Amino acid sequence: MHYKYKKILGNTIIYLLLLIVFIFTVFPLFYTFMGSFKSNMELLANSGRLIPEKFITDNYVQAWKLANFKQYTFNSIFLSFFVVVGTIFTSTIAGYVFERGNFRLKNFLFAMVVSSMFVSLGSLTLYPQLMTAKFFGINKSLWGVIIIRVFGLNVTNLFVTRSYIRTISPEIDESAKVDGCTFFRIYRSIIFPLLKPLIATLAILEFRFAWNDYLMPMVFTLSNPKRMPLVVGIMNLKGTGAAASSWNLMLAGTSIAIIPMIVVYVIFNRYFIKGLTAGAVKG
Amino acid sequence: MKSKTNWFKKDSTQAVLMLSPMLIGFVLFTYFPIIYILRYAFYDSNGIKDTFIGFENFVRVFTRDKTYWNSLLNTIILSFGKLAVEIPLALLLAVLLNKGRKGTGFFRTVLFMPTVISAAIAGLIYSLMFASFNGIVNGMLQNIGLIERPISWFSYKGSAMFVIGLASVWNNFGINMVFFLMALQSVPQELYECADLDGVNPVQRFFKITLPMIGPTFQVVLLNAIVGSLKMSDLILSTTNGQPGGKTEVVMTYVFKYFFGYDGRTIEVGYASCMALVTAVVLAMISLIYMKSSKKLGNSY
Questions:
Q1: Does the CB of A170 have a partner CB in chain B at under 8 Å?
Q2: How many independent structural domains does chain B possess?
Q3: What is the pLDDT of residue A282?
């Protein structure tokens, strides 16, 4: 009897704790969604209330039509699409070449690439990156961001694909080689199709990264606001002096930016968690 | 003609050709920027005109620019302060959600959710929530009578750092929770069964079995978390942007502003490069010290 009470008490405390963390987690999201249905008047006057007194969808209409969010959304989709598709090819090719390829300086090049990981410059390489992009005339559109992200060789992705390809039996390549397949042909017809599960993971990871990216697209669209992706557009709205009068737009815009991400997460949540953990533990 | 096709068909040639676009990209966008920063650290440059000035930039960082060191100190305080909450919270949740308790799947999915949201957006949501006049936090606190007049969260260094830390914990604890969950799943069940037979209580069980068993993962997760937090930038730009009066500036945003002349500063590429270099060295040193001092954690079993 005593033991049973103790267990019930223990469970109650645990669930209470989980409930608190649950509220902490969900509250900001719930606040954003609810706020996006409030009029600006209500947002500013009755700030202690979570649920709107009157649900209006006008904020979305305004954000979409007047505040350029239609354009921002298109830009975000554009950026994410090309980053995801491009990275899938470059990452798997790089992983394949470094794992199965045989050429002079391979190990040296690999060491060079990996060693760059230890230079923690974070967002501080943005300026020289922009200068390089300027040299090639790609510093004023999202193409610059796409090219840097796709061809810049992400070390984490490289590790993940390389170790995944290592698990594929080399005998498969060998027999294809005997049949006269070239190195590239083996990648295209044998290895790439076998990478499907990994590709799903890579795609999700890159989507999250590209959709959420802020500083690089901001720098590349500074002089070209029409090309801003969602995150940059929203932050731009916050930065302009009219911030207080555009709370409704900021909240609606934020919802437009995070809903697709959350939907993708809920549907593909398994791949999300697999990808994020694979990257960090291997790296 | 025949030899040419053979050359093209050679596996090593194809390998190099396949890799070359990425190698060029890597050299241009990863290697070149590092060299650029190394070079410009010794120059005075406004982005147009460059003058070699030797170690003058370094002298300036180390002797005259107190704000830089303050921002570095802020970064360290903020990072370790928020990790002191985030890491134990993530570990506790992982332990609670590891066993077949009812609803674990649901909680895992929901608690991970903020992790998929952009740091800039997370900062924006928190800055709206904690806004002094129209923010919902003040509104609710006033409604329940806890405070009489609105708290001006972003006007004081302490409270501003608290909100930034909270937003960062919100945005990041999920990923660490998932890392810990993965590590916990690899702990052999027999160990716990033996411990149960010996009548070990849950607290002892955690410190004597769980923690040592996940030690190596813990070491890596903490390193990633430390380096990640020290490189924080988006969250600051979207909450306080360094306000009030540069008191919440972190090192990445401080240097960033010199590069781009952002936020009313003049562009000083040379000086910014020098600070970037110093920052990279400091971060490397912190990681190194961490690796040395956490060795025990890594080989605890």
A1: no
A2: 1
A3: 42
